[in-house]
Q: What sequence folds into this?
């Protein structure tokens, strides 16, 4: 059986949300054969029992479950990716619910041969959740090779790759991602492809709903601190590359300048603290990064 799409979901200790995620995936309407791979990244909340209860087939989808003890979103994504059989490998998160036309939308998104990867639209599942970790743009965007891409343009909750281009960069950098010090493995993979000459796209037809559940300013602040440090590491990684260095230095300095000059004093102070966290993340990444042997 030829598999058109492989969908990878990585999970850690969120079995209740994972159940809903799987229910949404099982409700997909498509005539294409596809597969679902779920990677348990060291859960101890009953996730393994739930995964053992899943059928091996959901309609057109073959279901495969696996365990990855090494903590980190990148390590879990790589474990799933390396077991896929589809020509297109898609990723969503365990707190996301895909639309019923998700598979057909992905097929359409990759109809243009030059497109090597795609990011899709991410909406809030609950309107009472804070408006963050989403991507609401309804405008199609081609992402050109050897150009800067801002963090958040393509997010791990809704991204897909031709398997051949993901092979080219050997998957995700396991020094990065949730579970490490730097939450940026998704935008890093996209940037690695762009600076490797691959064209991508943001396609709003590919839709998921994010059920992140954060409702307070404190929860938002804590998450943004993590993302600020990850963004700094991302910038630093591409400043260390000779081909992307000048573009990333220019974009980072522009971002710092704009933040320091925008809004009232309170807003400017917030941007200054954001920039300091980015710089801390960048320096920490340079000081601690591990080179492949």
A:
């Amino acid at each position: 059986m030829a598999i058109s799409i492989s969908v990878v979901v990585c999970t850690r200790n969120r079995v209740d949300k994972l159940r809903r995620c799987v229910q949404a995936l099982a409700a997909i309407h498509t005539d294409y054969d596809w597969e679902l791979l779920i990677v348990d990244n060291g859960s101890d909340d009953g996730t393994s029992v739930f995964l053992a209860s899943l059928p091996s087939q959901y309609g057109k989808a073959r279901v495969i479950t696996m365990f990855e003890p090494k903590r980190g979103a990148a390590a879990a994504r790589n474990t799933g990716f390396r077991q896929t059989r589809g020509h297109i490998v898609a990723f969503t998160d365990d707190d996301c619910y895909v639309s019923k036309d998700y598979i057909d939308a992905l097929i359409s998104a990759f109809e243009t041969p030059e497109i090597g990867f795609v990011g899709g639209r991410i909406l809030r599942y609950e309107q009472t959740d804070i408006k963050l970790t989403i991507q609401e743009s309804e405008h199609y965007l081609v992402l050109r090779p050897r150009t800067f891409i801002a963090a958040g343009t393509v997010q791990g909750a809704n991204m897909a790759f031709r398997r051949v281009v993901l092979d080219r960069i050997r998957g995700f950098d396991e020094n990065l991602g949730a579970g490490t010090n730097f939450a940026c493995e998704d935008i890093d993979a996209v940037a690695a492809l762009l600076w490797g000459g691959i064209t991508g796209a943001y396609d709003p037809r590919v839709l998921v709903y994010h059920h992140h559940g954060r409702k307070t300013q404190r929860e938002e602040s804590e998450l943004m601190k993590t993302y600020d440090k990850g963004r700094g590491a991302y910038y630093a990684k591409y400043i260390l590359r000779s081909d992307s260095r000048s573009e990333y230095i220019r974009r980072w300095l522009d971002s710092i300048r704009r933040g320091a000059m925008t809004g009232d004093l309170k807003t400017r102070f917030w941007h200054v603290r954001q920039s300091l966290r980015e710089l801390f993340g960048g320096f920490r990444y340079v000081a601690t990064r591990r080179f492949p042997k």
Notes: Residues 37 and 64 are 5 Å apart (CA to CA).
